[in-house]
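Dear colleagues,

For the upcoming journal club I promised to circulate an example of a predicted protein-ligand complex. I picked one with beta-D-glucopyranose because it came up in last month's discussion. The inputs are reproduced below in full, followed by the predicted structure.
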Amino acid sequence: MVFPLPKRILRPGFAGSASLRWLALAALLGSTAPALAQTKSAPQFGKATMKEVLAALTTEEKVQLVVGMGFYPAGFPEGLLPPGNPGDREVPEKVPGAAGRTHAIARLGIPSLTLSDGPAGVRIDAVRGKDSTRTYYATAFPVATLLASTWDTAMVHRVGVAFGSEVRDFGIDVLLAPGMNIHRNPLGGRNFEYYSEDPVVAGNMAAAFVNGIESNGVGTSIKHFALNNQEFNRMQLNSQINERALREIYLKGFQIAVKKSQPWTVMSSYNKINGTYTSESPDLLTSLLRQEWGFKGLVMTDWYGGKNAVAQLKAGNDLLEPGTAAQTQAILAGLKNGQLTPAQLDANVTRVLELVLKSPTFKGYKYSSQPALKANAAVARQAAAEGMVLLRNEAKTLPLAPGRKVAMFGNTAYELIAGGTGSGNVNRAYTISPAQGLSSAGYAVDAALSQAYAQHLRAEKAKLPKTRGLLDPAPVLAEMTAAAALMQQQAQQADVALVTLGRSAGEGGDRQEADDFTLSAAEQALLKQVATAFHAQGKKVVVVLNTGGVVEVASWRGQADAILLAWQPGQEGGNAIADVLSGKVNPSGKLATTFPMAYKDVPYSSEFPGKALASTGADNELMGRPSENSYQEGIYVGYRYYNTFKVKPAYEFGYGLSYTTFTYSPLKLSAPSLTGSITASLSVTNSGPVAGKEVAQLYVHAPAGALAKPESELKAFAKTQLLAPGQSQTLTFTLTAADLASYHTATEAWITDAGTYSVRIGASALAIKQAATFQVPKQVLVQQSRKLLAPQQAVPELSVK
Ligand code: BGC
């Protein structure tokens, strides 16, 4: 009798001992019986019922379905990654460079799915093997932090629609995005992949993005669920946090995204929360995500995340990516020793199969690998311009009059940083630099200076190592010190100076305070040199910040007449920068994350990113070492902290200038007290000289009941259409008790306290334009929950008194 085991097990050359172990386990489990019955009449997936398909799957096949198909990235050091399942490597990749796959069970008609990063564009290999006849570039859209700064969910939805068409056209089933962790600290290495310090912004942006992507019939994975707000030792990090902060700040955005977009999948994070890996936490993945929030889809691990495969499946983490041989063995052993029930495995498998059923691959979508790159680049450009934030504009330095002679300083003026590194990177066909963008917009970019920079960049790059690993941070090239004569000549000849300063960050590491959050000595020197020379000639200096995250601005901003925060704006960045500098697009972006005066002003900044504990001896470059951090600022994250504790930021949450001005009419509430819901409306008028858009933000100041409340919390926001001078638009916001509720740990419930609430509508968290109050006559129990994810020991927290 031949055991009808998967072919790969019998593959010649496969390590004997492991294959024998596999055979023995399979035989012991008695799981070969259904497989023996496999004949011509095997039920076909999609035609047969789920029950019939489950009955026809062997145990090994079920295990294959919940364990992904290995990960063999080009250039990754062999031996650093755990071995994948035998035979996986031989299955040709459908989309080279994609991040992961699921197993096919061909005899039942179950195809393999392809999963690909990432948040700013489809991350796949641009060139396939030795084939030089064609390329597979994807559009690099602006990073998530920029998208959030648009405060325009319709725009973010449009980006999602365009982006999702590339996911579909490249033959991918699930996009591993959006990232939506909270900007807890400006040094978070992946903040550029995330939206905001505020969960209402993050949740609504993620929902708009997911709905846009999924309108193409492909899936998303909202990630990293949850509390992956830093990169330091991320795979062995225990984050300790009290329940209120966890629910109100770090889980709330995910909850909003699930409610408003029901993504196909969720990706659990690498870290532990209060002692348990998120991927092994039934509290998080089952009680909260599925039972309390009503999530219907699949949960997958982050790549190699967590430790205990059986605990992961039991917790409701259905798919282990990218899949290792050790996980397969652990699951088979768990079934054998009773730690994992067949029913649990069936539940996980069912969710994998439900995902397959929805996928374009299963539906036989004929993908072209030729997405509409040109049309999508136009969307990327428009979104980029909409999310740039004008931080400073003294004496109407901007917009720049047409045809000006511009002296462009700074490496990234010539080599823009389109996005971050790691899995957030995108292999794009080109990146438009600010110099190219301005020159296409009709400005005279000084050629001698461009040449000096070209030479400088060549020399600096020659010093770099030839290859760079997936998780190695992008090298920072030293800024050029311009010769005094060159500077003098520039200040005399050019009409205006533009200094572009760039930052790069990415997965695998956090940023540093010195020379990253703050300007390096070379950058400071450059800025000073330019400002001195140009100001002496009565000429203006504009700084363009090309960064994915927050940088220190307070110490040097006085030297700049204008500052445009261009973020990492994607491949069309240079054109979008020119659109804003020229006034073709009136800036309407606002900060979704605070720019503090100094790093020390960030709550608990000295403790970030946590501390390493004793080594287990098994630490390696990839896994890091056991570490912990503690969320002692509690709910006082970002503006909730700065506003409540009266710490003045350099640029507050919600801040951003325009080339026009707006007035806000008095605020009208639909009723003096809350019954079900209450609406707030006012009209915004463009009171200035040019057309523009305004982002109005609704904050609530809640009465202190049993709990202290932050000074203000964002509850809703809206962006006007493009308003012509003199034109008005009425904005209406609806609030319900659920929007106003706080999490009361003592009773494990979301409660809206009774009392007087103040609604404040502003142009930023500090520029409040109109306010009104209403009553909540009686405490409202919004939702009763139960003790979940509790800390091992209460975390000592910052309090108002
Ligand atoms: C990252 C994820 C990514 C995955 C696949 C992990 O290292 O944390 O965000 O989706 O790799 O590339």
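Two points we might discuss: Residues 243-261 form the longest helix (19 residues). The two ends are 76 Å apart (CA to CA).

See you all on Thursday,
B. R.
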